[in-house]
C-alpha cells in the first residue's frame, strides 16, 4: 500500500512539473509579437432565435 501511494505522489509531482513547464512555455510564446494580440480575439458567432413553443 505504501509503495502505491509513493508511486501516485511521484506521478502527481511529475504532472505538476510538466504542467508548469508547458504553461510557462506557452506564456512565452504568446507575448512574442503583434500576432499575440490578434490571436486573443474571438471568432464571429452566429445566433439563431428559437421560438417559444415546446418541443
Rg, Å, rounded: 22 Å
Average pLDDT confidence is 77
State the helical fraction: 55-70%
Listing every helix as H and every strand as E from the N terminus to the C terminus, the arrangement reads: HH
Q: Would you tell me the structural class of the helices and strands?
A: mainly alpha
Number of strands: 0
Span between termini: 54 Å
Shape: elongated
Our count of helices gives: 2
State the major sheet: none
Low-confidence stretches: none
How much strand?
A: under 5%
Oligomeric organization of the protein chains = single chain
Transmembrane segments: 7-24
Keywords: Membrane, Transmembrane, Transmembrane helix
Q: Please, could you describe this protein's structure?
A:
The chain is mainly α and 55 residues long. It has a domain at 1-28. Helix content is 60%, strand content 0%. The radius of gyration is 22 Å and the shape is elongated. The chain starts with a helix and ends in a 17-residue tail after the last helix. Keywords: Membrane, Transmembrane, Transmembrane helix. The chain crosses the membrane at residues 7-24.
Amino acid at each position: 500500500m505504501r509503495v502505491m501511494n509513493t508511486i501516485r505522489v511521484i506521478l502527481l509531482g511529475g504532472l505538476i512539473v510538466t504542467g508548469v513547464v508547458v504553461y510557462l512555455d506557452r506564456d512565452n510564446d504568446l507575448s512574442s509579437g503583434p500576432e499575440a494580440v490578434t490571436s486573443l480575439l474571438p471568432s464571429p458567432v452566429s445566433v439563431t432565435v428559437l421560438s417559444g413553443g415546446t418541443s
